[in-house]
Amino acid sequence: MTSHQLLQDSVGLTLVSGNDRIDRTAIINTISKIVPVNQIESFGNLGDAKKWFILFKTNSSKEKMLQLEHLKVRDQIFSVHKPHRQVKLIRLLNIPSSISNDVIRDVVSKWKGTIVSVECECLPRPFSSIKTFVRRIRMKFESPNDEQNIPISFKLFGITIPVLLEGRIKVCYRCKSSGHIKSECTALKCRVCMEIGHDDSDCTR
User: Which of 95, 100, 180, 187 is the most exposed place for a label (fewest CB within 10 A)?
Assistant: First the structure.
């Protein structure tokens, strides 16, 4: 059993700024303003004083804590997140089956991770023998920072390939902003210079 499996029901707290002297009492007091203390099952780390884990007694308490992006404890700021899962699923869109898995391996090997598998995604039954234009990659990452090397899209043989990383926040492939997808994008696009961010009448080109 991996550490992720042991902690998959926990909420992670990672120190991102402030002094590195940890006051557990101060952290618990801050958390208690969000979730009652009697809902906390346990609190601790696995040897890294910057990375802490909280186990809650109820899923609703856990989800309430996960609604936060950061937790401020005095002069320290902790990111609030689900525990890091080392093996992640990455889906690459718009890839014809005529492009070999070896070509895909060569591309993704430049990302900071270990390739576990590469395969074509197939249609559901009863047509599971038919491949789609989606390539599924499983990669192992030693830390969340390593996942930052995965682009939101790349070009291959002139085709734009969107990259969908498991657990990553929504990314718009139109304006490249996070928090929404292309179909929800409201950013202006100029028909003169084709750039995002202004309308035709405001174009200076």
Answer: 100
Strand partners, 10: 55
Name the phi and psi angles at 146, rounded to 5: -65, -30
Q: What is the CA radius of gyration of the chain?
A: 21
Q: How far is CA 203 from CA 10, 107, 173, 189, 196, in A?
A: 50, 36, 22, 10, 11
**pLDDT (tens digit per residue) in 111-156:** 988 898 999 999 999 999 999 999 999 998 877 778 878 898 999 9
For tokens 């990659």, name the residue: 137
**Domain 87-168, classified CATH 3.90.76.10, yes or no:** no
Fold entry, domain 3-81:
Alpha-Beta Plaits (3.30.70)
Taking a C-beta distance cutoff of 8 angstroms, is the pair 184, 191 a contact?
no
Q: Are residues 45 and 15 in contact, defined by beta-carbon separation less than 8 angstroms?
A: no
Give the CB-side neighbour count of residue 41, counting CA atoms within 13 A.
Answer: 13
Q: Is the pTM higher than 0.70?
A: no
